[in-house]
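so my prof wants the structure for this chain in the tokens format not the other one, which i didnt know existed until like an hour ago. anyway here's the sequence
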Amino acid sequence: MGFIDVRLSQLAPTDLRGLPVAEEGMSRWYPPEFLPREGEGILFLDEINMAPPAMQGVSQQLILDRRVGSYLVPEDWLIWSAGNRKEDRAVYDMPSPLANRFIHLEVDPDFESFKAYALSHGIHEQLIAFLSYRPALLHQLDPHQSAWPSPRSWMMSSDLHRSGLDIAPSV
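here's what i got, hopefully its the right format
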């Protein structure tokens, strides 16, 4: 099964819609090469609510109609999306017609899942031991700070710790 990860916050609307090319006195949109053409898989539109409203509008057409311009999403491809919560203070408001087309699931970090991942990816054992003792510190969002404990920041902390550097700037 194929998987294509598209970070919508890093694209402009023409990056998803494609480029207009004149052909026989008409504009034809040439879709981007990263969109699927065949087979089956998941087209994952990440950071949808970090994308500016114009980008969300283009992605809405892709999500609702399974097409954008002349491009059609192949039948056996699923379109999934993810974004942060409003409370995370890093998002644009999602237009209600787009928001209404989704099943909204909130995913909470789970220490046992993180521990299994950390062990298989060589996270420093002292950090795993610390989090085993204080699992509530796996994820504590503080939108007023530039760094806070999260699974991602603990991964960075492992590299800092191995280098003999202070982990405080990452967590």
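also thought this was worth mentioning. The beta strands are 2-7, 19-23, 26-30, 41-46, 67-68, 71-72, 77-81.
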